[in-house]
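writing this on my phone so excuse typos. first protein, seq and then structure
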Amino acid sequence: GHVAQAVVKILSECDCRISWVDSRPEIFPLQLAPNVSKQCLQTPEEFLDRLTPNADVLILTHDHALDYRLLLELLLHTDIESIGLIGSATKAKRFRQRLIHDGVSEQALSRYVCPVGDTAIKGKLPMEVAVSICAQLLAKSQTASSKDNPRRGVSWREIKSVLNGDVSASRSVAADPVSRSSKQE
């Protein structure tokens, strides 16, 4: 509900694509950002088949039973590695026990986090919770991105060393093929 609206508001300003799924048409604003697609589905589980394995999924519904159905379906029938579930520590413990009872493996359980969000942000207002969720998601995304795309170019420290005449630094820069190709670009 309100947290999902706030999350979409924040992430719509970021470099990402958002599929906003809800069964209640009145929850969606009239105007959506170009990177947000509205999916008004009576049974949100229908959307799970459209997800790619590299998707980040946030379960932020207004209904604990729906939260559980979505989470169970994601853990049993998809390979999605990044699933965040809104809730308290009590909800997390209760869901974990039910998931184990329903046959979810320990490996699959490691694919979701509840409560989702940066624990350093303590606020309970919808926008505060949304900020904590987005901070966690963006940090994860940027960490993964930096692993997939190693740094290109020369750092400011390397440039400073070379300009100050540190010959050993210039050799390390010249020996780095990524840095060398970046200088030519």
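second protein below, same order as before
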Amino acid sequence: VIRWRDSGRDRGVVLLNALLLVVAMTAAANTVLSLAVGDTTRLAAIHGGDQMALYLDAGTPLVAQVLTADWEAGAEIDHDGEIWATEGYSVPIDRGVLAGRISDLQGRFNLNWLASDNAGPAQAAFERLIRVLGLDIRLGRAVTEHLRPGGPANPAPYYNRALPVTAPGGTIATIAELRRVPGMTEAAFDTLAPHVAALPQGTGLNVNTASAPVLAAVLPGAALRDAEKLLSERAAAPFASAGDFASRAGTILRREVAAGPAPRDFRVVSEYFAAVLDVALDDQRQSRMIWLHRSLSVGTVTETYRMTLP
């Protein structure tokens, strides 16, 4: 039988093992605690996200009430001087705030005008809009091809991508579809987006809410400065009818206003709107864009589309 005579060494080994065990247990405890804290944080973020989504859902009827109240007020026109267009909306909520702002989609160039077999005037107007915005005219033609009934004449730029996509042609549901157009960069999209919409083909342009670039585009021969004069005229007194617009615009431009969308496609009242809703809850934030249709006959407002914003 062999016995260790150095009992001090035995005690040192036992002590070292005990210390190592304590260190290991401490590390394990810290790991478990860290995971627990992380799970709690993630769970709080999930619950916060769910709560924000519910607040955003509640924002839709609030916006609808604003638009319905505008209709009930009996105004015969919609213009960018009305309360719904000039005021932001803010509602205090538990631990935060819900805010929103409304814009008129009919004050924008309707891209679905291009998805027609007789889209010549609309195509010319869209090319003018591209020039006014300082974008490459080739991009404008690519957008026109993208919306061409039956699809682009040359689909190769879509099929030859690293991730091939289809280009079905025809009308689109949202302007996000433009991101699939060959040559469309984020910078170009951001420049174009505030001036275009994707609405039913027969939807007219509201000349009381259209931007200067859009007015310059739909009035052949009108420069941007001419359109800005129209905006000054409109600020003093919104156009009462399509005929009033044609008459006053003709006087300012010193010629008859026709073409682009023809005068019968000009409107002074709108039924399609968009709203951006923002909710801030503690240190979290979430945004959503919704598209709304307001019946011109009964004033009922319905949500037609929604999209979460980054």
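The chain has a mean pLDDT of 86. thats all i got for now
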